């Protein structure tokens, strides 16, 4: 063991007393509806619809240290830094590292050095561009960098122990805050900051202010257990899965009278099992990583066989929206999901006053102007009662501080191969009143998906961009070229393996419709990711700048990992209305065989379910929206195709297309921007 150069006796105990709150803890999002069960018939409740972490919409990573766990939420508006941090996380580079710096009342720092008595710096990738946007206040997480060079960050990160905005916001271009500590995770951070610190010579490197623990009287040599190990950093969902893998929240439930009803939780699903006739209550608790919890109680009644009526309950609330005040009419959509015994009735209200003829689960304001601003809610009812949703606010902001909401990237993940199994992704570039060209990044990713734990990927994808039947550009292996690497960094795309066999293009096409074909050079099949990014700088974007307005892909939909996933990101600062369709049966009109007979469409923001649809139901508003964007009509209102029309705030989303009851077949997924 190598000797300490100097062991400091002082404890780092000085922490600010009053600082801005940066964390969130679990809350009840919607009340659990009362349940009326029949003997012998279990009931299940998706707890994701009733508990959440307010304001948490970004990717969450969990840090496991020898002193406890805590979580970071990564911010979407620092895409380059987020992608950089995730590249180290997903590659496992941050595992078995140490907290190598602690300065009382200032920061703790990690992401640099290995957990070893002969510690060395972890391997690092290229430096990244600075993205300073937020202040360095307590509980925020920022990237460390070299003095005098604002674009020098690589792997090292730090947590602000106090309000460091006066210092760190004003030097070296400002330090990029890319995450925040969630819940009461700062209690773990503070326990690390409270340790004594030492200057340690590891041999290859010498470090100051290294936090250490378990130092014994007279100790002169460093022991491995003295260091503060970060055993792992990994991406985790907010809600638990049935396989009991790591997550931010966990659920538990207990019945007040198990002789009437028993309660069990698997992942995020509560199962209520009737035992005998009677009424009791079940208490359900959501607990986060650091022990913060919230509970609610559901009343459960058990009757005889058959019958029973469940009162309505809202599972997905309508969301508030901010729109750009352009003066021109816009399409605004509010929607909700509800459970309860059929038939359910819906009545939308504005400011508490019922809106005539607005009696569906989706409210479509087809020609909304600033005069439509206000609060909107919906009353859902059935024979057992009624419930009113939370009020959602529609607000309009002037053009000066706002940036137009738009589709800034689109992606499709599915199986691909050669011949009939070639993945074909269509997209359009344009928008009302736009002209000219736009810089894009187009990628066909196969081998580099392995860094995210995916297996069975394409080994050597080829990407070809077409306009009609004319080839615009093609690429086999991207080769690590500077233009492609810089454009990926600019748009916040994850890094490709420089010597890998992924394919990428950097075209600047004119307004029009295009297709990207992803095929496999070796003739094999496997999972592929097709990506299209708009690389127009935010500062250069105006209402007349061409933008991505739709994407579509047709492919075979399987089960499990073989479902069809379409990802998209809404950039800017204002909401955008989108039409999302999962088409199966109607494809037969175009001569397509072996179609997915009953597609199910679910939209997620991170791990949060935003909306879902099984059968579209022939709603007139959905038909009108399809006509407005030039999509082909769904002629049969009773078809099993699935459609969502939503107004979404800026952020990342994934649309998952699967078969009801695990069915398989050919399906088409489409995402359109509405004017």
Give your account of this protein's structure.
With 675 residues, this protein is mainly β. It has five helices and 47 strands. The protein folds into five domains: 4-22 and 57-236, Cyclophilin-like (Cyclophilin), CATH 2.40.100.10; 31-50 and 242-307, Immunoglobulin-like (Sandwich); 314-397, Immunoglobulins (Immunoglobulin-like); 407-557, Jelly Rolls; 574-675, Jelly Rolls, CATH 2.60.120. The radius of gyration is 27 Å and the shape is globular. The chain has a nine-stranded antiparallel sheet, covered by helices on one side. It has an eight-stranded antiparallel sheet with strand order 37-34-39-32-41-46-43-44, with helices on one face. Strands 36-35-38-33-40-47-42-45 form an eight-stranded antiparallel sheet, covered by helices on one side. Mean pLDDT is 87; it is low at 1-23. 7% of the residues lie in helices and 43% in strands.
